[in-house]
Write a structure and sequence with these properties.
The protein has 11 helices and no strands. Helix 3 runs antiparallel to helix 4, helix 5 runs antiparallel to helix 6 and helix 9 packs antiparallel against helix 10. The chain has one domain. It is mostly helical.
């Protein structure tokens, strides 16, 4: 138990935190853009400042999970704000925003459904808190659990930023990218729904039904696929000749799941559920 806040009070605190973080980010973006006249750098600084604020609130309540909604809340706010700033509402932009908002609403709703209040901290954070000295934990907390995910999200958002800031014409590949992203979010929706139902009815057992029967991490697969779809939308209008390095965001995001998130989850499952070893042996990593 981290503190004694009720779930309703915790929702209010988290909501207020993200309202202030968003306002702080907007103010910082406007100020930085006036001073340095670089939109992307200004956006990065604003994103980091908002993250630092959320991190500070997490410190105040001694709960790193305050940061958890950032992953799904920041992208639609950032890209919608950029679209409003540039006044760009062409078909490519609207298709991108449709995919982003569908994904964000789905993921935020899943967070809200599983959110137990500020009395609970995600097991991954508790693992670091309990196994490290206070100084090392706070370094991991700031750089690894807050700042790094923000930078990864920023990287996967950059194709969307350049797509919105340019005057691009939609084509069939743009539509395919949007379909891939929305399909990916739907995979996550189905996978999480199946997992929630299974855990409710079969506590402590390995979920091996539905999408989980054919892949050990369909939800992570959906998250990876989501951002490849966004990059494909950008690539469809810009091609390789304009900012080819923007593919790095989707690559880094994929590596983060393959090298960090999935190994952590599999290690925990193997430790807590003896049957997981057999499940792992006979079930693919992804769908």
């Amino acid at each position: 138990m981290v503190n004694g806040f009720s779930r309703k009070t915790s929702f209010f605190i988290i909501g207020l935190t993200y309202v202030f973080a968003s306002l702080l980010g907007v103010i910082c973006y406007v100020f930085c853009k006036q001073e340095i006249n670089d939109a992307v750098l200004s956006l990065l600084v604003a994103d980091i400042v908002a993250t630092v604020y959320v991190w500070a609130v997490g410190l105040l309540f001694k709960n790193v999970s305050v940061y958890d909604p950032y992953w799904s809340v920041a992208p639609p706010i950032i890209l919608t704000g950029i679209a409003i700033e540039y006044g760009n509402y062409n078909a490519a932009t609207l298709l991108l925003l449709l995919a982003i908002w569908y994904w964000a609403i789905r993921l935020t709703a899943n967070w809200a459904f599983t959110f137990k209040g500020l009395s609970y901290e995600d097991w991954r954070y508790t693992k670091y808190r309990d196994s490290q000295s206070p100084l090392v934990f706070h370094l991991i907390n700031f750089f690894g659990l807050n700042l790094m995910p923000t930078l990864v999200v920023f990287a996967v958002l950059l194709p969307g930023y350049y797509m919105i800031s340019g005057d691009w014409q939609i084509n069939w590949l743009t539509v395919l990218g949007a379909i891939i992203s929305m399909f990916a979010a739907t995979i996550q929706l189905v996978a999480d729904t199946q997992a929630h139902r299974f855990r409710r009815e079969h506590q402590g057992q390995v979920c091996n039904v539905g999408l989980w029967k054919n892949g050990r991490h369909p939800n992570y697969f959906g998250e990876i696929l989501m951002w490849w779809g966004v990059w494909l939308m950008y690539f469809s209008v810009a091609g390789w000749h304009y900012q080819p390095w923007l593919i790095c965001g989707a690559v880094v995001n994929t590596l983060m799941f393959l090298c960090i998130s999935i190994p952590l989850m599999e290690s925990r499952q193997l430790k807590n559920k003896p049957a997981y070893a057999d499940y792992r042996k006979h079930t693919r990593l992804f769908i």
